[in-house]
Design a protein that fits this description.
Chain A: It holds the Pfam family DUF6691. Chain A: Keywords: Membrane, Transmembrane, Transmembrane helix. Chain A: InterPro entries: DUF6691. Chain A: This is Sulphur transport domain-containing protein. The structure holds 2 protein chains of 2 kinds. The radius of gyration of chain A is 18 Å and the shape is globular. Chain A has helices spanning about 1-20, 25-35, 45-60, 85-100, 105-110, 115-135. Helix content of chain A is about 65%, strand content about 0%. Chain A is built from 6 helices and no strands. The mean pLDDT of chain A is about 90. Chain A has 2 domains: about 1-75, no CATH class; about 80-150, no CATH class. Chain B has one domain. The longest helix of chain B is centred in the C-terminal third of the chain and has 24 residues, at about 125-150. The chains are: A mainly alpha, B mainly alpha. Chains A and B meet through helix 1, helix 2, helix 3, helix 4 and helix 5 of A and helix 1, helix 2, helix 3, helix 4 and helix 5 of B.
Chain lengths: ~150, ~150
Amino acid sequence: MVMRIAFGFLSGLVFGLGLVLSGMSDPAKVLNFLDLAGTWDPSLAFVMGGATLTAFIGFRLVWRRTTPAFDCTFDVPTNTRIDRPLILGAVLFGTGWGIGGFCPGPAWTALPLLAPGTLAFLPAMLIGLWIGNHGKHLQIFAPKGATQ
Amino acid sequence: MEMELRTAFTPWASLFGGSLIGLSAVMVMGLFGRIAGISGITQGFLGTVLPTPGAPRDRDWRLAFLLGLLAAPLAIMLGGGTISQSVPANLPGMVIAGLLVGLGTSLGSGCTSGHGVCGLARLSRRSFAAVLTFMSAGFVTVFVLRHVLRGAW
């Protein structure tokens, strides 16, 4: 239990250091990455590239083990269906990302810096997550013939 | 939004920071066997304070992970580093942005980390579709706000 918490904290710390050092936690950089027609800053492509490549190699190394260190199974999503909630959710998320320049991780790491924009964004994000979680179980999002 | 300040292109710092993000995703997979998706981890946190359907049950490491995220900027400042950041100051805009990000990542089952980093690294079809969609929505949104509406809102 203590080890799970210690290593959970360490993982979050490494993630957060990565967000801050890469510039991903600065909304100005994110919005400039998304501004192809204006003050474009391609840095974020390097963040995503470095992160994805490291995870691509690292996942394959850790999957050689039969179990993770502190759990019984590797719990990896098996759903391959590209459905309505996935696409609608991604459209809403991308729109909010383009307005505020924050996605969930950077919003957390920015919180201790207490910028007014962050203090407005984060509680709204939590409310949105909670509402979305309830809405996800509504009938309108159930794809035809799909089982949940 | 209203700010349109230039930011420096930082390929090496971004590549290095990105590798740390990837390393963290590998740690979470190797230690806990889970996807390091911040929206899912945040739902684990919400599940401890509110009834949240489908929130993950292994909350111990998720809460510790969030504390680690919060500790990161403090650690950098304690180490004598400075953090440059400019957050949009349009507060109603930031509330709308937060709501959309929360709604979207819960409906779409993931964000930049879960679908972006982890999903692409797993070569998941769903995640490729999600990343293409949210990136496109982000490009279109910034284009409309900065070049069509020109800060008129």
